[in-house]
Amino acid sequence: MDENTQIFVAESEELLEDMEQALLALENAPNDDDLINRIFRAAHTIKGSAGLFGFDSIIAFTHVVENLLDDIRNCLVPISTELISLFMRCKDQILLMIEDLDSDEAVNYPEIEDLLQLLKAYSASSAANSSISSESSCANNSVNSNNPTQQNQDDPNSSKAVNERDSYHISIRLDQDTFREGFDPAMMFSQLSELGQINQAKVVLAAIPKISMIDSENCHLGWELTLNSTQSKQQIADVLEFIDGAMIKILPPSSQIADYSQLIAELPEADHALGQILLEIGALTQSELQQVLNKQKAEGGLTGDLLISEGIAQPQVVKTAIKTQNKVRKEKQQEREFIRVAADKLDKLVNLVGELVIGGAKISQLAQNRNDVELEESVEEITQSLEEIRETALGLRMTPVANTFNRFHRVVRDIANDLNKKIRLKIIGGDTELDKTVVDRIADPLTHLIRNSMDHGLEMPQQRLQAGKPEEGTITLSAFHQTGYIVIEVKDDGKGLDAEKILTIAKERGLVSENQKMNRSDIYKLIFEPGFSTAKTVNNLSGRGVGMDVVRRNIEALRGTVTIFSEPNQGSRVVLRLPLTLAIIDGFHVKVANESFIVPLDAMVECISLNEVQKKDALRHNYIKLRDEMLPLIHLEKNWRGDAYDQQQQLPDRINLVVVQFDHKKVGLLVDSLHGEVQAVIKPLGSVFNGLSGFAGFTLLGSGQVAMIMDIAELAKSVAKTERKKQDFVERRSRNRVDLNEVLL
Amino acid sequence: MTALTANAETIQLADECTIYDVAELKEQIQNVIERGASICFDLSNVMVLDAAVVQLLLSTKITLAEHDLNFNISTFSEAALAFISNIYCQDILVNNNLAECEGE
After folding, report:
1. What residues of B are in contact with residue A223 (Cβ under 8 Å)?
2. Confidence band (pLDDT; 50, 70, 90) for A737?
3. In order of start, what are the domains of chain B with their CATH numbers?
4. pLDDT at residue number A132
């Protein structure tokens, strides 16, 4: 796929995303013109861009979609849930066609015929409606009637300009290559003159750049003109067809206000004054505009309000003109604020910064070895700058989770309809930022979680009412930052998990032994086991027993964790904790038996040197008492060396303890020496280390030495597991003792 | 050709002034604007004109207005006037823009 097609795909995907959001919002506000225009603009832009590349199938399909949208804008077709669902399917279809652009083989779309038939059926109904448009379905139709004659009767101050639309209004914007192609605009006017009389023609200055900005060989010329002609619109269009690449809009005589509004929305210019736009399209006469401007000067009022209060322009026309101005201003502002950059370029930049960090660490090490104070000071300055560069580079990849969260409105809507449930999705903290790599990879796990909540968690409306709950269930998707991690929660107010049922099924499937005693929290964790499912029937939503397992694996692959909380009849809450970035971390360098390890700085609580009593405890029990708290320990050397560890070796005089914390669980790591803070570029461990747990990756130190990066979440989990085993053992032993005593008695 | 007057500089367009000449003409216009002077165009010798030149004149008018400088055309040849009128730019380039260049 070439670069231009890639841009087309990326932009179309964004437009379709926006179209979907607008369609969802339209369901709750069916008379919102803004939303309808947003949807129309998305379809229109995609069709236009597809035209540039000759993607005929996309043009043909989008054209039919656009026609129906246009009928909706003209109040000929009423908005309904079925119609919104149809447009959702059309949006999916366009997306599919766009995604298939890089396919070498011809792709068949079995659904397309069905969609086209439905779209055309709606459009056919609009034709019937057009004859009774004054009674059409638009709620605001009585305010902004499409019938100008009716409007003028109701409003004696209505504009003369509106009444006098007995000519064609033609808008022409020439293509920028027009001059180079040798086209003479005088010829165009000459041809038009053959069709009738040109009453008024004005060149549009707004599109012409200042002298310092203009590429004088590019054409920026455009005109707004009125033509008195007895010819048909098609005949006029045919005459203008020969102008390559030009944007031509023709409004026939007696066009309605809505047509002029649409024209304003479609014209590219908007920076020039509102009055000027209205003047150029023929909605105002020069004297009317002058009258408004004089009054505006005297009273300091707004042009739009004055145009309406003076009865010179219709509110709908003014409203559209203001919207166009605001939209273009906003777009121009955004153009200034954002640059589109390919994600792989950012990845490359982050990788290079990673190499720079490693190189910087090497220089820092060399400077220390040389004992050169001046050199050390210079290196320190570079290190600080490097740190800033690193932060900035990583910041470039941070993106709001809302981009992913907003997709779920559609998921919730469609699934709720399928299940005949009433469900609302609430999003909290959508502007929380997360590394793009992580954002991209949480979409699937979140989909599974939301589907599960909808399918298994939330009750049917009747059941909810009987349980004293509102008929509509709520799924809350929230995100917030917490000490170097992002926490994402999926919460529902459904019936909660059934611990007994889960345990029974787990026993049936051999996931736990018949006599195994488990607390509620451990039972809930069973739903993440491979092949576990409580659904009686397999459906297309959930119940295949793979969803939750996939969730856990995907989240763990991102160095994250999944925890589930549930209360009967109150609902469930799944908490995902994910690292903010997968690329570079601030770490603390420790050594054990001459091997280097990096502890993520976010997880560190403190470093202490063990006293004699603590040393003995550490060796005997694998825990110590630290400020009246029992702290489980991990003997790093023993863990690292495994069977090769010499139990008899003499312990060093000084043993250091690094206390780390994960999710309120503290663990002590026994290490030989502490070497201070480092920036660690995370490199993935090769497949040879697949069986090794407790490490998130490795990094290269300034000395060139390899250091393993500790996975604190994994370590905390292993400690918790060991503790549970110990507890089970103690419980079993005490039970056995009781049994034995009973026998002896 | 550029001639200096009291407050404005005059730029005389050649007899054939088309897209092939716009780059040079643009530079000439920019130099005058950089000197902070108004511009008076003399189109009396123009026999051939095209839309690229007209567009440059329009751009000059916009730019000069932004700098509070004057844009004027002293004289038109018949050919120049006809072409400007044929592409409906006379409102902007002819009406209210005719003035004596000297003493602006």
Report:
1. 88
2. low
3. 2-93 (3.30.750.24)
4. 42
